[in-house]
Amino acid sequence: MTGPQITEMPLLSIEGLNKSFGRQAACRDVNFELWPGEVLGIVGESGSGKSTLLNAIAGRVSIDSGKVLYRTAADQIVDLAAAPESQRRQLMRTEWGFVQQHARDGLRMDFSAGANIGERLMALGQKHYGSLRETALDWMQAVEIPPERVDDLPRTFSGGMQQRLQIARNLVTRPRIVLMDEPTGGLDVSVQARLLDLLRRLVQEYNVAVIVVTHDLGVARLLAHRLMVMRRGQVVEAGLTDQLLDDPQHAYTQLLVSSVLSV
């Protein structure tokens, strides 16, 4: 897969992010940068803080301290942690995307497949029905959903097809960043393989930056250029994916890798 685009400034900078739930620290002093076209994987066991971190970046949960600095399409630096809710919501409809583990949580199940895709375009001001429908059909083909199902409800789709529809819904606005929370979770192995091939192709084709949370190191190796390993809310190791997985330095990372190899 093509590597990230080298530019003078990162697309996203996380600085000193902290989040606790009561006395339980979910994220502790997390720092990293994301570059255009880069896929960053965040791995760790359940409860390590990876999904909390993803939701904190997206503004779905408030943080206790730290900065979420985003370089917008207009080349302005915005701290999303301090930005108005209306601005964060607008960015999530246009320049950002969020692919949830369970597609039903990221789709409007009572809207047709075409309407799910077209709704995001309407946030950009597109109103012409014919144009919206044509774009929806194009994207259904792009994610390998039969175009004749454009008027069907997502609840009639298989789990893998629902996830592909959710991906189309998020990518149709050509976002600059997409956040993915266990995008292949709960899918059969054969369905996972097809979905991973699709994700790799779309990421490369549209040069989108991605943060993907997964507990599956195989998924991480296939998708991510770089990995961060989280344990108890902290990043314990980070590096290039192949290097980190082939020669882990931290004891916890070694345990994760060895547990996969011994299965």
Question: Please, could you describe this protein's structure?
Answer:
With 263 residues, the protein is of the alpha/beta class. Helix content is 38%, strand content 24%. The protein has ten helices and ten strands. The protein has a six-stranded mixed beta sheet, with helices on both faces. Strands 2-1-4-5 form a four-stranded antiparallel beta sheet, covered by helices on one side. The chain is globular.
Short description:
This protein is an alpha/beta fold and 263 residues long.
SSE layout:
Elements: E1 12-21, E2 24-34, E3 39-43, H1 50-57, E4 65-71, E5 77-79, H2 85-94, E6 96-99, H3 103-106, H4 113-122, H5 129-142, H6 159-171, E7 177-181, H7 189-206, E8 209-214, H8 217-223, E9 226-231, E10 234-240, H9 241-246, H10 251-261
Parallel strand pairs: 3-8, 3-9, 6-7, 7-8
Antiparallel strand pairs: 1-2, 1-4, 4-5, 9-10
Helix pairs in contact: 4-5, 4-6, 5-6, 6-7
**First-last Cα distance:** 27 Å
Strand runs, count: 10
Number of helices: 10
Overall, the morphology is globular
Q: Fraction of residues in helices?
A: 25-40%
Biggest β-sheet strands, sense, barrel? 6 strands, mixed
Widest β-sheet, arrangement of strands: 6-7-8-3-9-10
Stretches where pLDDT is under 50 for at least 5 consecutive residues are none
- Quote the beta fraction: 15-25%
Calculate the mean pLDDT score and round it: 91
Which radius of gyration do the C-alpha atoms yield? Answer: 18 Å
**Topology pattern, helix = H, strand = E:** EEEHEEHEHHHHEHEHEEHH
Based on secondary structure, the structural category is: alpha/beta
